[in-house]
Amino acid sequence: MIKLDRDEAARAILTRNDRGGYTVPTDRLYPFQWNWDSAFVAMGFATFDVDRAYRELERLIEGQWDDGMIPHIVFHAPSDTYFPGPEVWGTRHRIATSGITQPPVFGMALRHVHEAAVEAGLPNAAERTRNLFQAALRSHRWWLRARDPDGLGLVAILHPWESGSDNSPAWDAALARVPTSTTTAIRRKDTGHVDAAMRPRDEDYQRFIHLVDTYRECGWDPQRQWAVAPFKIADVQMTAILARATADLIHLAEDFGWEAERAELSEMHDRLTAGLARRWRSHLSRFVSLDLVSGEDVEAPTQACFMPLVALRIDDAQRQAVQAEIERWHEGMVVGLPSTAPFSPAFEPKRYWRGPVWAVVNWLIADGLRMNGLENLAQRIEQTTVRAIERAGFCEYFDPTTGEGLGGDTFSWTAAAYLVLGRRAKASASGARR
Ligand code: GLC
Fold first, then answer.
1. Quick one: average pLDDT of 187-196?
2. Is the CB–ligand 1 distance for residue 36 below 6 Å?
3. What contacts 198, CB < 8 A, 6 or more positions away?
4. Phi and psi for 18 in degrees, rounded to 5?
5. Does this model's pTM top 0.70?
6. Which atom of ligand 1 lies nearest, measured to the CA of 353?
C-alpha cells in the first residue's frame, strides 16, 4: 500500500516537472531540459506512459546540432533562475542550447522505451523508434569523430559539466591548470536555491566559465576546440555509457534488420570496448580515465571507475577485485555507493559529486554488476537506493554517511530511478520468496 503511494508520488513529480513534452530536472534550480536527465526520465515515464516517454526523447532531439551533437541543455523556454543561460553560450542552433554535451544514455533509453512500447502495443512505435535511432546514430558518429580523433577507443570530455559529475575529484588536477579568468561576468544562481556548502566552489565556477568562454571563441567548432582545449580527459564513464548505448542500438538494428547500421555500430562497439579494457588497473582494482593534456592516469577514486561494467564483460579476477573494492567503499556508510571513496582525502559527504550518492549512478552501476554476474551486490545497491528515497524523499542526492537527502528536492531523475529500481527490487524480493 505504502509502496503504491510512493509510486504515485514519483509519477506526480514527473508530471509536475513536465513543461510540455519535456521534463525539467527540478523546478528553479534546473529550469530547462537536460540531456542525460531526460534519458533517465524517459525510462521512468516508460513504466506508466510510453507515449510520453517517446516525447521526452523527441523533444531532446529538437536541440540536436547538424553535426550530430546532442547538447547538454536545451533552452526551450526562457527562465532567469539559472546561470549560464543562452546568452553566455552564444550557440547558433535554431533552438537555444548549450555548446557542450552530456553522457549519451539516450541510446539505452531508446531501447528501453521501444521495448515498453512493443509490450504496450503502442501504435507508431516502430516509426518513432526509427527516427530516434537515426538521431542516436548521428550522435554516436559525432562522438567518435569529434571526441576520439586519434582513435584511442576512448571519448574525451572538454568540460567537467559534460561528464555529468561537475565537481568530481577526478577533474581536480586537470581543472587546476585551467585559468580562473573569464570574459563573462559570473552570476551564480544555484547558491540562491541550495546551500553553498553543498555546491561547487566559486573557483570551480570561474574555471567552468573560462572553458565556456574559450570554446565560444572557437565558434563551437569541434576541431578548433580540440586543438585549444586546456581540459581534455578521455573519460571511462563517458566511454562506458557510449559503448553500452551502442550495444543497445545494435540490438535495435538487429531487431529491425538494419544491416548497414548494425555493421557500423558493431565496429564502433569493438573500438570502444577495446579502449575501455585497456584502462583497467589491477593495483587499484578500478578502471581509470586518461588526462590527454598531461598524459597521466586519473587515479581519483570516483564512481566513474566502476562504470565500465555496463559495457564490458570482465574476467573472474577483475570481478572479485571489483566486488571487494565496492564493499570497501560501503564500509561505515548508511547508503552506498558514494560518488567518491570515503577513504579518499577528497571525500566530502555533502558536496555534490565529491561523496554523495546519486540514484541514477546506482542504477547504472547495478546494471553493470548484474551484467557481470554480481547479482547479489546489484540487488543490494538497488534496494538500498529505493530505501534511501523512501526515507529521505526524491532528493537530488544523499549523504552516504547519514542517508540525509540533499540538494534540490522533487528531482525528476530520482523519481524515475525510484519507478524503475522499485520494480526491480520488488521482483527480486518475490523471486527470493519463491
Ligand atoms: C548537475 C549535475 C548533472 C545534471 C544536472 C541536472 O549539473 O551534475 O549531472 O545533469 O545537474 O540535473
1. 89
2. yes
3. 350, 351, 352, 406, 407
4. -75, 130
5. yes
6. 8
